[in-house]
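User: Can you help me understand a structure? I only have the sequence.
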Amino acid sequence: MKINEKRLLHDLRHLRSITATPGRGVTRLTYSREDQEARNYITSIAKAFHFNIRVDGIGNILIAPPASRARVLTGSHIDTVIHGGWLDGAYGVISALEVLRTFAENDYPHDAALIIFAEEEGTNFGSTMTGSKFLTGKYGDAQRTTLCDSQGRSLSMLAQEAGLDPAENILPLTGAELMIELHIEQGPVLEENGCDLGIVDTIFGQTTIRVTMEGLGNHAGASPMQYRKDALMAACEGILAAEKAVASDPYHRAVMTVGRINASPDCSNVIPEEVIFTLEVRDSDTERMQQYIDEIEVLLQKAAKHRRVGCRIDPIASSAAIPMTPSVVSSMDRLAREKQLAYRIMNSGAVHDTAMMADIMGTGMIFVPSASGRSHVPQEDTAEEQLIAGANFLLDVLREKAGR
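Assistant: Let's start by predicting it. Here is the structure, written out as tokens:
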């Protein structure tokens, strides 16, 4: 049994066309007009196959064939970052839908269901994996109103504007035992090692801090270098020291990123008085990740003292590394060997909804390569034959895990 290759690629390309930024990547924010169009496209296919469709108050979707007990869930998300790629999330959703169609066309009895998570990217509210956090009880009713976008509009408000009923209960997942997510790697490992498939054994943990360097603003020309209290130079010194510390990881797994930085007063001829930046560390080992954070905080304070500026460090968020279910990893490893696929067991540096689901059920993740290791950009891509191979492997996994 194989998927319909042309149908898979056609649907992926159609979703690619549903964007608020044509020609500049895919921008499809949750609750936007584009999001509604993508949802309607997917549910129209499901209705044509007489699948059951359930949508909860924040926009999570569960699609199951009539006879399925939804014991095994598979899927991903359809929202994107701004000017993002065409495969992140969408690939896992369309592949799962295609597997369900293939099962239906072959009268194959199974207990699989497609799940589409709302607001995975966190572009609206700054909260990633929002839908799966609601599904797993990490978020409750309070977050429906406390999660707000940059214009102060709450999740409930945006959901209602998108035609959802924000008072609707969150999807019940009683009876669900396993979550399998197919995704692009979003990194260079598979391509660099000549592999067509990755089997994830651990999803990285992540700790993020906000650092504020407070110096003294002054005239850029009339202030001699030896008298300056430059907040930006202190930040640069601390950031470079942090990078050096994490780059020394003997396992070459830990990563450090400063993704946002603001200097004030942000004027070309004024010495920066205050600099605020975020710094995150990710690792497959939670304890080691915290050790790096502790070391980095010392280095940042040292840089601030050297530059004679103040330094305040505030925690933002932290999540532990999440191992996938060992028996699931082992069975996918065996299946890939039997199929004689070019694959490897690997970590996921990116966090996915499956990490949230690991608290309440078994989990497994499958990767396909990302061209040049790029993702969250318009250049995001994967070879067609690898997209097809990944979807067919998902079909084989679900036959084994969800078949009756």
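Now, to help you interpret it: Residues 205 and 321 are 4 Å apart (CA to CA). The chain has a mean pLDDT of 96. Let me know which part you'd like to focus on.
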